[in-house]
Design a protein that fits this description.
PMM_cap; about 20% strand; Hypothetical Protein, Haloacid Dehalogenase-like Hydrolase, Chain: A, domain 2; alpha/beta; magnesium; Rossmann fold; metal-binding; 8 helices; 11 strands; globular; metal ion binding; 2 domains; seven-stranded mixed beta sheet; phosphatase activity
């Protein structure tokens, strides 16, 4: 590996277990990385959760070298010195959000695999720029999440159901039981292109780390941009990659 000009990380099942903060050792390594190479977090999560679970814990990081792309790249934020300044957004209209939520409610009632699945806490999150449908709920225990859909077959069925009824939107799988819905043409590839332009580099000079770089996954859409990619099985593997980045970028 050569040192990239910038690094982009997915969050859930990449930097941390879904809906959990990264470990202390991961946070320490990310803080070290921020002082050497600019990096971004691009996630289906909203800004509030990224701030709570990650940014507020990166106390030793150089925030000026970190960018945030919440809601699957439909928004972009950079550090202004005392807060996160919105650079762009592609929010859904109120009518679009209502329509999406109505179809998700229909999916919950009609699709047997969803109807019969246990759920813990809220299933639908309206973040204005994106609607996230977490089949098992945001409070699902990790041991249940990891065995529910290891081959992504269930999420693909949910995705197919929603695509047939919401053809005018992007519908992508992410996390361990989540499907994300954004405006058509707005996904993580949009965030990669914007970040490359901001930094004045080509996507091919950047490096992307994610757990859903498979067909239909919300990370896979970045591949056509030309960004270098690394598929990971979880946070432990990501931490090893951060160590590798630190080694090559310090050399």
């Amino acid at each position: 590996m050569k040192c990239p000009r910038a690094v982009m990380f997915d969050l859930d099942e990449t930097l941390a277990e879904s809906f959990h903060p990264p470990t202390e050792t991961m946070l320490e390594k990310l803080a070290d990385l921020s002082r050497i190479v600019p990096f971004a977090i691009i996630s289906g999560a909203g800004l509030d959760r990224i701030e709570r679970d990650v940014l507020s814990r990166l106390t030793q990081a150089d925030m000026s070298r970190i960018s945030i792309f919440p809601n699957s790249g439909s928004q972009g934020f950079s550090w202004s010195g005392d807060n996160w300044q919105e650079e762009y957004n592609t929010n859904l209209t109120a009518e679009e959000r209502d329509r999406i939520k109505s179809v998700i409610e229909q999916c919950i009632e009609e699709l047997p695999l969803v109807k019969e699945s246990p759920h813990f806490g809220e299933r639908i999150a309206d973040r204005e720029a994106q609607i996230a449908f977490t089949v098992l709920g945001v409070d699902a225990p990790q041991d249940i999440k990891v065995v529910w859909d290891p081959d992504v077959a269930k999420r693909r069925l949910v995705k197919k159901y929603l695509e047939e009824r919401l053809p005018e939107f992007e519908i992508l799988t992410g996390g361990s039981s989540t499907v994300d819905i954004t405006p058509k043409g707005i996904d993580k590839a949009n965030g990669v292109a914007w970040y490359a332009k901001k930094l004045g580099v080509s996507p091919g000079e950047m490096f992307y780390v994610g757990d859903t770089l498979y067909e239909g996954g919300n990370d896979a859409v970045v591949i056509p941009t030309g960004i270098q990619t690394r598929l990971v099985s979880g946070p432990e593997e990501t931490e090893r990659i951060v160590e590798e980045l630190l080694a090559v970028c310090r050399a």
